[in-house]
């Protein structure tokens, strides 16, 4: 139960109590970790602050990746307060709706670059900023989806973006592994969140997941959180670089 006691982690991507990052934050805390939590902006803060309080977050910091310097400020504050960091959760994705809801063939350069910047490059940057705070090792997590490797109807432009994220995970794992820093992409089955609401026909995706997954049920944010938190523990010390599915087995079925 206390496998993360004495460990400190940064959790990004909580928008509300449906967020995957919230499921992770609860599980990290239940295992004894101390947390720093970010919120997008003042509008989001009213939703995130009560949740941060529920997990006794030691730090609550603004993070809008579109604001130059804000990501660096988060890590500077953590360095000043804690000196070191044991894990980082990146649970952030964004794509302009017009591009996300059209064909990949038609997506705009700006839309594609924005989606890559916010949903993928920011994870690479977080790894860069976390590295000096993890002299004794640590774990980095990002959130991906099956649409990275298979063509999932309506997932569109996020498919190539998540493929890049999973590939970045492997390169970061190879580069940072010698320092004891492990890197994982988590690939949950579909979950009804705010980010998911931008995907057309999302309900159909949920029905299909429930029908096809060997477990015959949808995953919830606690399923994702508990498995992710376990990967941050020493029990998972020889695991790195994978994309780990938490999808009831959906990805093994034709
Ligand atoms: N919901 C699903 O079905 C599903 C499945 C697999 C993977 N994922 C991934 O899980 C992650 C979390 O998404 P979620 O489903 O919990 O939705 P969510 O809407 O709860 O979380 C998305 C988060 O991204 C943040 N964000 C967006 N733009 C940002 C910016 N410019 N700067 C900082 N933060 C920004 C939002 O504030 C929000 O907290 C995403 O990477 C998503 O692609 C979701």
Automatic annotation (TrEMBL):
Catalytic site: 145, 155
Positions contributing to NAD(+) binding: 13, 19-20, 92, 162
Keyword ATP-binding (UniProt): no
Lipid metabolism as UniProt keyword: yes
One Gene Ontology molecular-function label: enoyl-[acyl-carrier-protein] reductase (NADH) activity
UniProt-annotated binding residues for substrate: 95
Record-listed E.C. numbers: 1.3.1.9
GO biological process: fatty acid biosynthetic process
InterPro entries assigned: Enoyl-ACP_Rdtase_NADH, NAD(P)-bd_dom_sf, SDR_fam
Alphabetically ordered keywords of this record: Fatty acid biosynthesis, Fatty acid metabolism, Lipid biosynthesis, Lipid metabolism, NAD, Oxidoreductase
Pathway(s) annotated for this protein in UniProt: Lipid metabolism; fatty acid biosynthesis
Catalytic activity: a 2,3-saturated acyl-[ACP] + NAD(+) = a (2E)-enoyl-[ACP] + NADH + H(+)
Superkingdom of the source species: Bacteria
Pfam families given in the database record: adh_short_C2
Family under the similarity heading: Belongs to the short-chain dehydrogenases/reductases (SDR) family. FabI subfamily.
Official protein name in the record: Enoyl-[acyl-carrier-protein] reductase [NADH]
């Amino acid at each position: 139960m206390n496998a993360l006691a004495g460990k400190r982690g940064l959790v990004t991507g909580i928008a509300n109590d449906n967020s995957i990052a919230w499921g992770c934050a609860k599980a990290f805390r239940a295992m004894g970790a101390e947390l720093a939590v970010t919120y997008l902006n003042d509008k989001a803060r009213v939703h995130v602050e009560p949740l941060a309080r529920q997990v006794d977050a030691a730090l609550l910091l603004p993070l809008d990746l579109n604001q130059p310097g804000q990501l660096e400020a988060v890590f500077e504050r953590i360095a000043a307060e804690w000196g070191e960091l044991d894990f980082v959760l990146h649970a952030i994705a964004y794509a302009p709706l017009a591009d996300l809801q059209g064909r990949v063939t038609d997506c705009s350069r700006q839309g594609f670059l924005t989606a890559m910047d916010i949903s993928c490059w920011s994870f690479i940057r977080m790894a860069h900023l976390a590295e000096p705070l993890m002299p004794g090792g640590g774990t980095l997590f990002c959130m991906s989806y099956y649409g990275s490797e298979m063509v999932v109807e309506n997932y569109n432009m996020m498919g190539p973006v998540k493929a890049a994220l999973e590939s970045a995970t492997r390169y970061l794992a190879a580069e940072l592994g010698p320092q004891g820093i492990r890197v994982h992409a988590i690939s949950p089955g579909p979950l009804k969140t705010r980010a998911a609401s931008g995907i057309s026909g999302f309900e159909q995706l949920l029905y299909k997941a429930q029908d096809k997954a060997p477990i015959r049920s949808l995953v919830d944010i606690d399923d994702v959180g508990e498995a992710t938190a376990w990967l941050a523990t020493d029990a998972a010390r020889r695991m790195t670089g994978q994309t780990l599915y938490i999808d009831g087995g959906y990805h093994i079925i034709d």
